[in-house]
Amino acid sequence: MNEHFQPVALEHASRLINHGPTVLVTSADGGRRNVMAAAWSMPVEFTPPRVAVVIDKRTCTRELVMASGAFGLCLPGAALVDLTYAVGSASGRDIDKFARHGIVAKAGPVFGVPLIESGCAAWLECRLIREPHTEDAYDTCFAEVVAAAADARIFANGHWLFRGDNLGLQTIHHLGGGNFVHAGGVLRAQPL
Amino acid sequence: MNEHFQPVALEHASRLINHGPTVLVTSADGGRRNVMAAAWSMPVEFTPPRVAVVIDKRTCTRELVMASGAFGLCLPGAALVDLTYAVGSASGRDIDKFARHGIVAKAGPVFGVPLIESGCAAWLECRLIREPHTEDAYDTCFAEVVAAAADARIFANGHWLFRGDNLGLQTIHHLGGGNFVHAGGVLRAQPL
Q1: Cα–Cα dist A14/B127, whole Å
Q2: What per-residue confidence (pLDDT) applies to A75?
Q3: Given a cut of 50, is residue A52 above it in pLDDT?
Q4: Residue A163: closest CA among chain B residues belongs to which residue?
Q5: Distance of CA B50 to the CA centre of its chain
Q6: Enclosing H/E stretch for B149
Q7: What is the distance in angstroms between the CA of the first residue and the CA of the last residue of chain B?
Q8: Do A181 and B39 lie within an 8 Å CB cutoff?
C-alpha cells in the first residue's frame, strides 16, 4: 500500500519503540475496528520481541484486543500530530475513527490487524499474551511482536534515520495536553 | 543541592516520563549503591502515580531494588548523554559508578534513594510494588512514585519547557547503540 514500507527483522523490532514514541493502537474484532493513541508503551524483551502497552480497561480498544487477542502499534510521523491527538480524544464506541478521518488501513500479515502506513514511520503487529492480573491492576497488556515494517525513508537496516528531509515521518512524543516533542522541536496539535 | 530543583506535585509525576525519555535507575542497599541507564520505562497510572520499568534480573540494580524495595528514576539532560551511555555499559558489580564518574547524589526524601540532580532534568523516587510473576517473566518492575522534583528551568507548574536556552537539560531518548534523539536533533555518545 505504501511503496516505501519494508519488513523489519523481528530482532530489530524493539528499536522501533525504544525511544518512547507515542503510538496508535489499532484493533479489530468481527466487523468492528478501532484506533486510539497511546503514549505509554515500551519494549520488555529483545528476543523474542515483546512489548508492554497501557490500554485503559474502559476503552473500546481494550474490548477489541481482549476479544481478538491481537493489536497493532503504528508510529505516527510528525505530519500526523493532529490526527494522533484527535484519535486519542474520541471513543471508538461512538464513531468509526478510520472512516471519520479517512484513515486507510491494510491487514496485518499474521492476524489481519488493521495497520496504518500512510504518514506513519512504522508498525508492529502483536499477539496479546494474556496476563489477567497486570491487565486488571495496571491496565498493562503484554504482547509478542509477530511482524513489523517501517518506511525505509526513516528506518532502514535496523536503524532510525532522523534527517532534515524526513521531518514529517519523525516520531512524536506526547508531553501531555496535545503538546508533542519530535526530533526537531515541539508541535502543538490542533483540533481536527 | 541544585538550587533550580523544585518539588513536582505527585499528580503531575507521570508527565515527567510521558514522552519516553531514557532514565537513570538509581538504587542502594546497605553500603552499596548503583546507577544504570534504562530506555524501557513508562507511566501506568496517573493517580496514584505508578510506573513500570524493565530492570534485567542479571543486573546489580535489580538486586539492590529487590533488597531495598525502592529506586529512583533520574532523567539525564542532553549534556549527560556520554555519562548515560557509560553507566548503561558497565556493571555496578565491578565498580561504584558514582565514584568512577564523580556523580554527586542526594538522598531521596522518603526512602533515601540516591538521586542525581546535577545535569538531570528531574527525578522520581519510587516504591517497588512486588509483582513476582511479571518481574520474573518480563523483567518488568511496577512501582509507585512517592516523591518527584524537576529543574524549574525545564519543567515548571506541571509542564515541560523545551526551549533554545535549555538544550543541555532536554531529555534524551535512546535509539540504540549510543545514538539518542533529543528535542533538537541526534546525539552520538562518546566513550568516557
Answers
A1: 27
A2: 98
A3: yes
A4: B185
A5: 14
A6: strand B140-151
A7: 25
A8: no
Total domain count for chain A? Answer: 1
In this structure, what DSSP letter does residue A85 have?
H
Cα angle for residues B77, B81, A154 (degrees, 5° grid)? 100
ipTM value: 0.94
Q: Of how many residues is chain A composed?
A: 192
Contact between A157 and A150 under an 8 Å Cβ cutoff? The reply is no
Low pLDDT (below 70) residues in chain B: 1, 183-192
Q: Is A133 on the interface with B (CB under 8 A)?
A: yes
Cell reading at B47: 493517580
Residue A139 has pLDDT above 70, yes or no: yes
CA B139/CA A10 separation, integer angstroms? 20
Put simply, the answer to whether B50 touches A15 (Cβ < 8 Å) is no
Domain that holds residue A152: 5-188
pLDDT, position B183 = 63
The burial class, CB within 10 Å (0-12 / 13-18 / 19+), for B137 is middle
Determine the Cα–Cα distance for residues A43 and A66; give it in Å rounded to an integer. Answer: 20
CB B105: neighbour CB atoms within 10 A? Answer: 19
Residue A184, chain B, CB below 8 Å: the answer is yes
For CA atoms A71, A49, B177, B145, the dihedral sign is positive
Among A86-90, A123-127, B66-70, B122-126, the least confident range: A86-90
Q: How far is B186 from chain A (nearest CA, A)?
A: 7
Q: Note whether A40 contacts B39, CB cutoff 8 Å.
A: no
* Mutation choice for A interface testing from B85, B134, B163 by most A CBs within 10 A: B134
CATH number for the domain harbouring residue A118: 2.30.110.10
Contacts of B21 in chain A (CB under 8 A): 20
Cell 533538537 belongs to which residue? B184
Sorted by sequence, the CB contacts under 8 Å of residue B99 that are 6+ apart come out as none
Chains A–B, number of C-beta pairs less than 8 Å apart = 121
Mean pLDDT, rounded, for A4-29? 97
How many whole angstroms separate alpha carbon A104 and alpha carbon A83?
Answer: 13
DSSP secondary structure code for residue B180 in this structure = E
Chain B nearest C-alpha distance from A117 (Å): 21
**Amino acid present at B192:** L
CA separation, residue A140 to residues A98, A127, A156, B155 (Å)? 25, 14, 30, 27
